[in-house]
Amino acid sequence: MNAAIRAVVRAALHRGAEVIGFSHGWEGVINDESQLMESKTVGGIIDRGGTILRSARSAEFRTPEGRVKALGVLKKNEIDGLVVIGGDGSLTGALKLQEEFDFPVMGVPGSIDNDISGTDYSIGFDTAVNISVEAIDRVRDTAYSHERVFVIEVMGRRNGFIAIESGLAGGAEAILIPEVPYSLLDITNNLRHAAEKGKRSSIIIVAEGAARASDVKLFIEKNTGFDTRYLVLGHLQRGGSPTVFDRVLALRLGALATNRLLSGFKGEMAGVDGSKLVSHPLTYVLSTERAIDPEKLLLAEVMSS
Ligand code: F6P
User: Fold this and answer.
1) Residue from 107, 79, 78, 80 nearest 95 by CA
2) Angle 111-112-115 from CA coordinates, rounded to 5°
3) Tens of pLDDT along 133-142?
């Protein structure tokens, strides 16, 4: 997110615009937590996780009264357009502001879940996946040496993008995601068959939206008797220095959204299609479900067989 903030500020200053940053998301707009953003404000932040502007959920912005308040604050600060960096909730708020008051907005997809349509990647996903894979690699050493089954739960909200990507890269024996029905009984049978053929350790990745790692651990232990442990990666996946991929993605998307806003476009979200920059209407982005690539699902199945 910091790289995206840096890109928005510097791209706008480059075009001669003045930039105001709001802390704490929509809550900060309602409460007028505004600050002038200069080039130096965003210096030395590209390698920092999180966001210097901080973040918050806002119940008030979900009400029509809250949005009227926010509009008043934007007008008071003489804001002509807003770049909103965030996930589903933040972008839905942006679209509402534009639809209700014709206030120009541009979205930048920021979510480790990678569940936003209109872009192949959202900011934070690559970093979260890399952290997960590093954890899987470390756990595998104990799994191998102590001949255990490990169940590792990753984030992803209602989707399995983090699970599939980190499960593939981490060489997981099974990956459970909410998008695909699974049978714990089949998984335990597979573990038993693999053990019969001499396999003494396994790693199972569970997306938080599919099951609780603790429940899966209990089921496996009860049905196989194998020594099983579980680990919930949780918020570890949301912090730390961003990967090169995420930094460059954030810079590109932040600059694109800003440049388009300054050129008179509005109601869109910047994204990437492969390596190409794109910008899609927020109405499309927010009404379309992002699906897991079937090729990756098949690959995961083949790799774990
Ligand atoms: O949407 C990002 C995400 O990290 C999800 O993967 C997770 O379910 C959720 O946020 C956690 O939210 P909180 O930090 O409020 O517990």
Assistant:
1) 107
2) 65
3) 999 999 999 9
Which residues, listed in sequence order, are joined to residue 269 by a DSSP beta bridge? 107, 280
Q: Which residue type, as a one-letter code, is found at position 263? A: S
**Protein residues whose CB sits closer than 6 Å to any atom of ligand 1:** 87, 111-113, 155-157, 208, 238
Residue 125 has pLDDT above 90, yes or no: yes
Q: Which atom of ligand 1 is the closest one to the Cα of 209?
A: 8
Please determine whether the domains at 2-124+242-285 and 126-239 fall in the same fold group of CATH.
Answer: yes
Tokens of 90: 């933040």
Q: What is the pLDDT of residues 171-210, one digit of tens each?
A: 999 999 999 999 999 999 999 999 999 999 999 999 999 9
CATH topology (fold) of 126-239: Rossmann fold (3.40.50)
Tokens of 50: 């999180």
Residue 264: Cβ within 10 Å count = 8
**Number of residues that make up the chain:** 305
Check if the beta carbon of residue 168 is closer than 8 Å to that of residue 299.
yes
Q: How confident is the model at residue 168 (pLDDT cuts 50, 70, 90)?
A: very high
What is the bridge-based pairing of β-strands 276-281 and 228-232?
unpaired
And the tokens for 75? 């007008």
Phi/psi at 185 (5° precision)? -65, -45
Helix (H/G/I), strand (E/B), else coil: 61: helix
* Token pair for 83: 């770049």
Residue with CA closest to ligand 1 atom 16: 235
DSSP code for 123: B
> What is the CATH architecture assignment of 2-124+242-285?
3-Layer(aba) Sandwich (3.40)
For residue 128, report the distance from its CA to the centre of ligand 1, in Å: 12
